[in-house]
Amino acid sequence: MKKQYGFGEILVKEGHITAEQLKEATEFRMQKDLRLEEALIELGYVEESLILATLSKQLRIPVKQKSAIKVDANAVDLISERLVRKHTCFPFEIKGNTVKVLVIDPLNLILEDEIFQESNLRCQFYLGYKEEINQLLNEFYGTVTVVQELDEEESEFEEDDTGFDISSQNNNSPIIKITNSLFKNAVIEGASDIHIGVTEKKVEVRYRIDGILHRVRELPKKFHPALVSRIKTMGDMNITEKRLPQDGRIQINLEGKAIDMRVSTLPSVHGEKVTIRLLDKGKLLMDIKQLGFQEKIEVEFDKLIKSPVGIILITGPTGSGKSSTLYTVINELNDVSKNIITIEDPVEYSLDGIVQVQVNPKAGMTFAEGLKAILRQDPDIILIGEIRDKETAGIAVKASNTGHLVFATLHTNDSVSTVVRLMDMGVEPYLVAGTVKGIVNQRLVRRICPHCKVAYKSSDYSEEKAFFGIPSFLELKLYKGEGCEQCKFTGYKGRVAIHELFLMNDELRKMIVEGASQAELKNRAIDLGMTTMKQDGFDKALEGLTTLEEVRRFVLVSD
Fold first, then answer.
1. What's the Cα-to-Cα distance from 200 to each of 203, 216, 224, 227, rounded to whole Å?
2. Given CA atoms 221, 225, 229, 232 in this order, what sign does their dihedral have?
3. What pLDDT score does 257 carry?
4. Which residue among 17, 186, 254, 336 is least crowded, i.e. fewest CB within 10 A of its CB?
5. Neighbour order of strands in the sheet with 193-198
6. Highest mean pLDDT among 75-89, 151-165, 343-357, 397-411
7. C-alpha to C-alpha distance for 270 and 451, rounded to whole angstroms
8. Would you say residue 160 has pLDDT above 80?
9. What is the mean pLDDT of the chain?
């Protein structure tokens, strides 16, 4: 008689895991009260796709992806939200006296019984990916059943000292459920921004993940006013003002984790567009080594930020990670022996031991006015959120000339153009040369997904090779992501910074005072050892951190 192997034994027999790993997973499963499949995935021994393929083969139950099913609304209406969320399953079709259900656990007999009790129908199980099932639950239960209640009730949302608790199950208002769902999923997905747009017929929700916008949900347009009002209420904004742009701030609490959110509304033809920036303090405050500098640049940067006086500028476009770099540096330098004061618009995070000032133009507290006051507070280190005008630039120069270390940001395309930008603002060349110690320019490029990364050899001509000046006949060992569940089949997961560090020295100071062009300054800086952003990106592509295609998206052709 042919021996029947258990699920774990099959994985060992087929060489996917070792017997020792199976033993560890079994112990881990018992400690954490998980299924064996969940334990193996959590420990990183196997991918979910392998689990599903093995179960499918063993139990003869087909695997179905979200893209392959057509959802029958009758099936969704038939089974309660309580039941499907409890078991992480999704009913998608009724055929005769059977309901077809996507499941993560095909041996769940309790689920079969409970579905039969609710619907009087038998179950036909299909294996599904957990994340896709959760997406379906949020799309059909998190929206459809909730919006049906929107016209029927309103309730207050309780706020505590740590912000709005979106983990709570006690918030029964439908619009609160939708808003909480949007915020919670954005945090889980690692989104940096939430975009809520409105067209003639619908509301479209998109998340920006790793710098790219993805559509995640649609709602009927009639629910747009209630959703926007809810967000405005949370952000302490004027819910009756719909003709003018507004800014607000929300703090949410997700399972004990505080997330700050910056809200911006913009009137449009079909209604107000809402954009929300998510600020995770845990991601903002890093160790210097986590900023992604190459070893040579990291050593130079570490020496630079320990300068006693001068101006150090962090530059790049919006969303390039300037705030993360600045906060990391200030946190690194934070010491009881130093008086550190920041002036920001807005103050993104509260830092212990540091005096932070919020710009408020309506009250007369501009960057320039705030800086004047800060200079009377005996500071050692000053952080300026952004140099926006001649007056602010002039005061920053004055501060550095009077014995202070000044950090600031500027929106520029590369490090050397920052020198020209300061002079265009009206700062005299000799002052720029005498006060600026160094300039970091950076971008965030998508990181290759570590779960599906593969190496390949590039020997043929490509636009990327031409862009980086690599001969077409030269074979390169490069890396790419093939696409998997972990990265939603994009090949990328997370981001990594690419940098350019311009360090001032006597020769470059002399060139600036004598009126050297931007190109002349850059060429000489490269001769003196500056690694351009293009080179830094190329090096990181060779390391397998990102791809040449991704670097090319962000780097200037002139580099």
1. 9, 18, 11, 16
2. positive
3. 78
4. 336
5. 159-160, 163-165, 246-254, 257-268, 271-279, 193-198, 202-209, 212-220
6. 397-411
7. 42
8. no
9. 87
Contact 384, 407 (CB under 8 A): yes
Q: Are strands 340-344 and 193-198 parallel, antiparallel or unpaired?
A: unpaired
Amino acid letter for position 2:
K
Mean predicted confidence (pLDDT) in 345-371: 88
Q: In angstroms, rounded to a whole number, what is the distance separating the alpha carbons of residues 194 and 328?
A: 25
* Widest pairwise Cα distance in the chain: 92
Give the separation between CA 232 and CA 253, rounded to whole angstroms: 17
Task: Tell me the two tokens of residue 217.
Answer: 């949900």
Is 517 or 33 the better-scoring residue by pLDDT?
Answer: 517
3-state secondary structure of 233: helix
Report residue 27 as tokens. 């112990």
Q: State pLDDT tens for residues 26-42.
A: 888 888 778 888 889 98
The encoded tokens of residue 149 equal: 């209640």
Q: Which amino acid is at 68?
A: A
Q: How far apart are CA 500 and CA 296, in angstroms?
A: 12
Q: How far, CA to CA in Å, does 53 sit from each of 46, 57, 488?
A: 11, 6, 18
List the structure tokens of 188. Answer: 């889980």
DSSP single-letter state for residue 485:
T
Q: What SS3 class is residue 108?
A: coil
- Residue 401 phi/psi, 5-degree rounding, is -75, -15
CA dist 481 and 490 (Å) reads: 8
Residues 278 and 252 sit within 8 Å (Cβ to Cβ): no
In angstroms, the CA 90 to CA 92 distance is: 6
Of 110, 123, 16, nearest in space to 5 by CA: 16
* 3-state SS class at 194: strand
Torsions phi, psi for 292 (to 5 deg): 90, 15
| Strands lying side by side in the sheet with 89-95 | 89-95, 98-103, 122-127
At 320, is the secondary structure helix, strand, or coil? coil
Residue for token digits 């790793």?
210
The average pLDDT across 163-189 equals 75
